[in-house]
Amino acid sequence: MLILLDISVQEGEECHSFPELIKETNMAFCAGCGSNVPSGSGFCTNCGQPANAEQTTVKVAPAQPVRVAEQKFFEADGVLVTNTRFVRGNETFAMSGVTSVRAHTVVPPKTGPIILIIFGAIIGLASLQSSLSGVLVGVVVIGLGILWFRGIKNSYFVRLVTASGERDAVSSFDANYIGGIVDAVNQAIIHRG
């Protein structure tokens, strides 16, 4: 005996549960083992039981990926972070390829201004007994060294880790800005699951 499953939609009828049904397939199921019985076959190909009933037309939808609505986590200064993408200027990274993110700091060397300050101190001390102009030159050199020292800033980067390696995606002298982007990318990674 053959049991038929009828989930077809009659012509002119709308299927409100599955509006995307587009492909018709003939299907029958074996009463003995529950396997699909091919169209036009006299016997079940799995257990060999005779198939004497008519077959049923079923409309089947093709498999489609589930689309998740895009959610913004960060947008400022040409940087956009959503649950599906990371955009910086004209470059886009798929969030599905990002495995982790971290902030990276580069501290530039400060040996140049320190050497200039020491040199200015040597000039000032050496000319202390001979001339006032030498002392002024030493003070000016020390002042330039201090300005140079104070002008050196750390560079902060958003470092993305993907299957192809690590990549510095955004750089700035503002640690809070980079921290906000890193937090947003972490939230996007968590949100995507």
How is this structure best described in words?
With 193 residues, this protein is of the alpha+beta class. The protein folds into 3 domains: 1-64, no CATH class; 72-107 and 154-192, no CATH class; 111-151. It has helices spanning 111-126, 132-151, 175-192, and strands at 2-3, 23-30, 36-37, 56-60, 72-76, 79-82, 85-88, 91-94, 98-106, 155-162, 165-172. Strands 1, 2, 3 and 4 form a 4-stranded antiparallel β-sheet that branches. Helix 1 (111-126) runs antiparallel to helix 2 (132-151). The radius of gyration is 36 Å and the shape is rod-shaped. The relative contact order is 0.14.
Highlighted features:
single chain; 193 residues; alpha+beta; 3 domains; 4-stranded antiparallel beta sheet; 3 helices; 11 strands; 31% strand; rod-shaped; disordered N terminus
Describe the protein's topology.
Blueprint: E1 2-3, E2 23-30, E3 36-37, E4 56-60, E5 72-76, E6 79-82, E7 85-88, E8 91-94, E9 98-106, H1 111-126, H2 132-151, E10 155-162, E11 165-172, H3 175-192
Antiparallel strand pairs: 1-2, 2-3, 2-4, 5-6, 6-7, 7-8, 9-10, 10-11
